[in-house]
């Protein structure tokens, strides 16, 4: 496991993952999408029905980008949902290469 650049402000680097499957709730949720700010340790945990790339993009846009702006770096475990075309397309448009250290595209490209 590599080291990451030091952060000097909130939401420069976000660590993201899914938890689950868990027992299904009355609303049909079986997973939790988690996002942690490496600077402040502020955590966002959002229940979700699944852990597809589309769900990931929606939650990330609604719960992270719309509140705090686009982070400079998104750290993931390279799970299938994080590495899917839906997530990789905006990265390619910004000439970014998928790895365990993803620099993120602009906010408008996440919702396309």
TrEMBL record:
Q: Which Pfam families match?
A: rve
Entry GO MF terms? nucleic acid binding
* Coiled-coil intervals, chain numbering: none
Q: Where is the composition biased (Basic residues)?
A: 83-95
Q: Which InterPro entries match?
A: Integrase_cat-core (IPR001584), Retrovirus_Pol_polyprotein (IPR050951), RNaseH-like_sf (IPR012337), RNaseH_sf (IPR036397)
Q: What is the superkingdom listed in this entry's lineage? A: Eukaryota
GO BP field = DNA integration
Q: Which PROSITE patterns match?
A: INTEGRASE
Residues of the region (Disordered) are: 80-112
Residue ranges occupied by any Integrase catalytic domain in the UniProt entry = 6-112
Identification of the protein by name? Integrase catalytic domain-containing protein
